[in-house]
Structures
1.
Amino acid sequence: MGWMQDETGLEKNAANYVPLTPLSHLIRAAQHFPDRTAIVNTINIRLDVDTIAYILGHGEAKVVLVDTAFIELAEAALARMEGETPLVVEVCDPGSGLTASGRHPEYEDFITNGDPEFEWHLPEDEWESLALNYTSGTTGRPKGVVYSHRGAYLHTMGLSLDWGLSRDTVYLSIVPMFHCNNWVHTWSIPAVGGKMICCRDITPKAIYDAIADEGVTHFGGAPIVLNMILNAPDTDRREFDHLVKVYTAGAPPPAAILAGIEPLGFQVTQAYGLTETYGHVVTCEWRDEWADLPDEERFRRKARTGISQVMMDHVTVMDEEMRQVPMDSATVGEIMARGNVVMKGYLKNPEATAQAFEGGYFHTGDIAYQHPDGYIKITDRSKDIIISGGENVSSVEVESALMHQEIRAAQTILRQGSLRLHPPSRLFRPRLADFRRALWRGVAGYIRALQCWPPPDAVLRCVRCPKLFHPCS
């Protein structure tokens, strides 16, 4: 299928077949948009020293660019490594009060001492490896996820189409590079000649200032970022007269957050993906017929996980026998993904790679159901499903139900008992000073609305818990 009867003289050659790579976006940007070219550097500052040391050794790092703010963390990790350690190049920021330690070569000097005539070596094969990203490692050592040039390139094309990127795009970088290379956004913006804005500290004030002063049109971030914006004090808020498009991923955003942030001038689209899929590959595409729905139902639909993006071949929900589940808004299965923006595999772990790709699909480990229109709705990670009194309870559903105008954040936590797992407690952070009023006026009614929750022996706890999540998590 798709071949001419006579293909003589129609072979691939250097003129008609060039390996796809997002590095070509950077070359084009440097040539045609020299005033918009910059280097973005970030490091996962929240990993423990031992894990950082493991990643540097497992990935066989040769050079590490380290912000001065995290130089001691890097040095501690290097001290834990066995064998050869990578060269540390320090990236100082005097403008922010971060002067070089003097213990390592500085980035600017390192670049200045390079060969100005050096030409980039682009890949000969688009299946060559481009990037290495590590999973969270919540149940063991993190796995090294390998990206290809082809996959990253096609992701940038799909993102540009789905998100409407153009030369007028002004992108605020919030998602860290260690999260799927900024969800591949950092390669997409140069492709269209857009402008990228970076902030050292992600705060509500910094976000509002970037929107008002720099004209930010797009950014991505976890729901906690939306929560920050929604609950920002009046002193941090700024007026702006344009629409800001937002992709949110990393956790399902409660409908209450979507309802609260839209009137502020933000058009939020939920996105879903994993490290293994170069970031998001599913988005909750807006449908015009939703516009006339009552607000509560409209925001409930916007909180769906969504449908596959243009760069994917197929994303759906299957049962344990890898059969399509009924699209009845009830039958659950595992989200399966197939397409050109699925990882090459796990570095030095062929067994895990084979298991992840069993049956010709990538097994995400995420539990979901599908609506009759094909839209996916994630319910939980398979390892996070709560079994209580014979009932399967979704922690995501519990947390979403708790989210109310008087509740900023909620988290479901299992309490380990001596013989069994007790029903989970729900920890939440009321906005109001009066905890009891927030509890009984807001939360209790929402919990009662859940058909199977809480079980008779469940314990509802209202506590003053600290801020648990970094906005870039």
2.
Amino acid sequence: MDRLALVIGNSDYKYVNVLKNPKNDANDMAMVLEKLKFKVIKCLDVTQDELDCAFNAFLRELDDYTTGLFYYAGHGMQIDGENYIVPTDCELSDKQKTIISCYNLNTYLKRLSAYKGKVNICILDACRDNPFTAVRGSSGGFTEFRDTPKGTIIAYSTSPDCSASDGIGSNGLYTQVLKDAIQIPNIKIEDMFKTVRVKVSELSGDTQVSWEHSSLVGDFYFSVVPMPVNVEYSDEEIYTFITERAKYYEQKTEDIYDIECLPYVDAYIKYSIPIVKLLRAYSRINYAQRGDHFSDATIDEINYSYLTSWGFSRSNGRWYYKGTYVEMGDLLPLPTELSPMPPLINQELKIGGRIKYNIENGKIRMSLFSNIPEGTPLIFSLNGKKYAAQCSTEAVTPMTPSELFSNRGRPLANGHYKVTVTCPSHSVLPETIKAIFGERNRNLTGNSVKFDPISGNTIHMTFDFLLNDGEVHTF
């Protein structure tokens, strides 16, 4: 999953009348968002302390996701131009005590501004008949937020300074409409909210008009039902063919690149579909089976960044695999917030390196000589036919050793092996390394750097060797 949601519903207020539907709204929205591949943190009838804890937990976890959504149903208000959501233990009091007893949404948006390159969605079904407007200087409706972070859309259940209906059924009017509209496939988020506005206005007799404020820079879809990459063949047929061919090559060859690439070459010959589209069809199903959800544009970018490391090569504008021509095809365009970022001026770090192998009683240790900054977390991965292992370490100047790799304590079998040296995504790097690498590791460049839309740039070095009776042969 690459989507995270915080869903809060406050109904049982301690010192004022209970609201009928916010908990129902939150429960229903949580179920819908889970269907839409969000990981959901749901909180009901939260106090002030619980609100603070919920937001802190959400923001800590958000760093690992491309999309963050906050949904709130309950009492909300504005005081002196700032917007607040009201915890269940808030008492009617003077303005200053009320301010410190509520959660300031303007502060939440300021904290969001630290998360670059994400889609931030804020849905506020509040402003229902509000007893807290008795507090001097307050109003029952939200006011427009100022200086919202780039990549953010805020949806309000009603217009500024107006109240929203708590509904006559099990949901508030706004959420009643929203929970259905949000599941409409292949509709941009702005068009989805426009659909909600039309329906809410119609059902309320024009007394409630929802609205949005947006600083989104790309397109976002809650639900995407992908069309087959080719009208003549289903994704399932393509996936099955490639899977079966991979099993065939696992039995036929020791060459791990042939095992990886030839199934796609065969599929290209069989279906006359470009490699990028074949990869897209296969990955849609493969990611879904693993519980992950990515847009087609993200899938294309992830796959494309690994094509050369798998063994596909480009010559004179054409793509080949070991001399066999293939049509590669075009990638779908990425949203701006997920696109590569250029390095900062005078901070570019071109990564390069070489590797040395040492055999010790049939076991192997790799030593990496590189310019990777000291202290950078690294992962050494060793892959062969029916063999996969890895170890973690930190870069040391000028040489970083791996642990010893073995076959469960025994010598490694003869065969072709691929060594991959990678670093984690930007979010988990030490602060000193983050400062060198820049936002989303933007300062890293060179052939040993791969880009993917989720993590940004990462170090990705690959080396190959042939192991034969305890001797290493490189190529």
3.
Amino acid sequence: MDMEKSRQQLIGRLTENYADYRAELLLKDRQELIDGADRIAKTAEVFQYFTQHQPTEQEVSYFLKFQNPLEVAADHWESCEFELDALGAVMADTVDQAKDLTLYPLAVDAPERKPDGLQKFVNVDLEAILPQIMAQKTAFHQKDLSYALDEMREGFAREDPAKRNFVVIFRQSGVDCLNERDMLIAGTRSYNICQYYHRHTREPVLAYSVELTGDGPNGLRGNLYQQDQHQIAVFAERAASPYTDVTVAFYSGKTVRVPGKEYNYETIPNLKYHYGDILDARNEADDESVVQGALHREHERRERMPKGHIAVHVQELEEARIQTEADRLAAALQSLTEPNTPDKTHFMAEVSPYFLPLASHDDMHRLFEKVRDQVKQPIYIAPVEGANGQYIFMRREERAQEQPSKPSIKEQLAAKPAPGDQPAAKSKNREVR
């Protein structure tokens, strides 16, 4: 590798290290930031040194050996006792001594990082695309998406940026629309729903962050970011600030702040009686700076996601939906040891009731072909008398033909020995009784 490429590789790794470092800072409270101010300043100076001054060939070669060269350099700069600006000299001395190779994780030992496959989709027609995504997951309660779009329209009409960022979760029975800021305030509805999909259900869902960018005559537009339901919940749990109060704004112009536990369906009528209809309600965190720091970190992370094509993404979701159901049905048929139809003549497996409402005629044909190719036997799809739904059937005789019959003992004894087989040697040392 030539030196210029090596320098760019080092700068890239340092930039990644610095982004991770800043992200960690955004999760710290104010006292921790005050106590660590000197380290923060030293780290920034080291990053500035490498990115704004051309590092020497020796520095490039040495610091590329480490997974986190920023940490190595910052440790040396922080421990420097000189008062003058000697950062360059400290880096040169660090390279000359080369004492860090056994103290810090080396780049050659770093596990291979696999991409998570998540993408971002920019400037999307949300009112056209979100229903297409829903059609690949949500079989029941599809009306929920209308409520979610209404909430987005209301949010875009407000000047508050916190009202323009959402997380939409598509599940088999319904759609949840979470306010992104509230998801980082522990104890709010959005936070609790996010944690539910991580801790209390195994159902795989489709989750997307939605960033509204426009609401014109053609409808809502915005950016979509794929999310992993578990990763985002772990991040929210770690980064969230506790829920304290609710600031309630009324059409009368009055604003009231009430404890969060006292704002519910039982107390809202009393508030309306005193102040009139409610214009807006904003959940408040114990430390808003923690919430804003977490939001900033999340937005920086998702901006680095690779761009995708939304039409291709929807096609991939459709293919995955059919393939997943085909795999499940094939596994169910192959796991049966005895026919399970009422007359005991066929093996059968029910097509998922969550798959059928979303399936077109073409989807059912593709499903049939995928299952047939896996079980490698003739099958057919039909309903069962007295039951709802559709089932895939395979005849008992066809399953029996699949398994070769075991030869009888007589046939095994009459069989000629294979070439090269030697009869067992007779023992000469027999015990006389």
4.
Amino acid sequence: MFLTKPTFYYIIGLNNEMKKILFLLMFPILCFGQKPILFDSLTVSNEGIFMYNQQPFNGIAFANNKSGVLLYEKDFENGKEIKNRNYYAAITDSTPHLKFETQIKDGKRNGLRKGWYYSGKLKFEGHFKKGWNNGSYKNWYENGNLEKESFFEMGVKVGSYKNWSSSGKLIKDRYYQKTTPTSSKLVKRVKYLESGEIISKECWDTEGKNISCD
């Protein structure tokens, strides 16, 4: 088994969050069983297939920034990118700090995409299909409390869109109604104090006219 260069650093004694990051680094290597190579070592065929030694590449390709710190990794299967990982790549980093991880299909975001704070805490998680937001999308504060939750259908915001305060209290709730295959309209918005008391409540029809919320 081969590990990318950054995964050799300080494995013992890391906190749980950093161990999770290292697991994410090592998991693709365990699956592919191949030493990572520099991304610039790959060539691209006329069909858009990434090649290495004149063969469709299977494995992990990586790139470092000018300071030699890991910048990104890309996983390939039969010459096609299936996942990528981007790192904060601070000049002072001796261990990698994962920033984004994205599943890819046919060159577009497809499946789960996740992001992390520099501390290793989860920052967001969203689902994609053919490059479009599709399904739930959530954001978290660094303290672990949920910040936002929204829903999409092929890039169109639909249903409930909620915001919470950093202390975990619901402070805003909106509702979007799909009007065409490519658009939606805000039809309801409610604002709250952290105590739960309603500050305001507004509703509209799909033409934008104010209507009763009852």
